[in-house]
Amino acid sequence: MTHSWLEFAKKVHAIAETGLTYRNNEYDIERYEQLKELSIEMLSKIGNTSPEIVSSLFEHQKGYQTPKVDVRGVVIVDGKILMVQEKVDQRWTLPGGWADVGLTPYENAVKEVWEESGLKVEPLRLLAVMDKKSHNHPPTPWYCYKIFVLCKIVGGELTPSMETLDAKFFNKENLPPLSEERITKEQIEIMYRLIAENTVWCD
Fold first, then answer.
1. Minimum mean pLDDT among 25-29, 46-50, 70-74, 177-181: which range?
2. Separation in Å, CA 25 to CA 12, 20, 37, 50
3. CA–CA distance from 124 to each of 13, 47, 75, 105 (Å)?
4. 33, 57, 72, 80: which could join 96 in a potential S-S bond, CB 3.0 to 4.6 Å?
């Protein structure tokens, strides 16, 4: 039930921001501001945090609301998959993060793998585009698409970064504790299947 209310609150917030962008008169501004305040209050109640903190999360999310894009690099060597340990929660995920403006999905994947693991890679092909709501991630304030890019190593060496504590390869049968906000065990299994079948996933 909480997850459903979170989705409702995010939709109300998106409608409010879009309405403020395309408003026609001062009455529209007042109504959409009220909707925005309501959505922030809902999100603060759901997340058991202050409205000020919730508001700060959306500080730069102005204008017409679109999904955020998370790009992950998939590197598999001898059956083992590259993972990095996040400083923020000490759990493991595929190297990646929010897409940077001005970079293609492939360029973002290459950059993230290099920055978070110390490995230089080349992109091989798109593996998947996933709607985060369709997978078993913990609830988050943002609507998000996840892009997974298969990459091959061309240089570098495993090195932690400012954002990561460690970088290692793991067998899919013996994965470390996962940062499930970023990756799920099901998604890792899907990556192996897509590589084996030479197919692309889109949901």
1. 25-29
2. 20, 10, 19, 31
3. 37, 39, 10, 12
4. 72
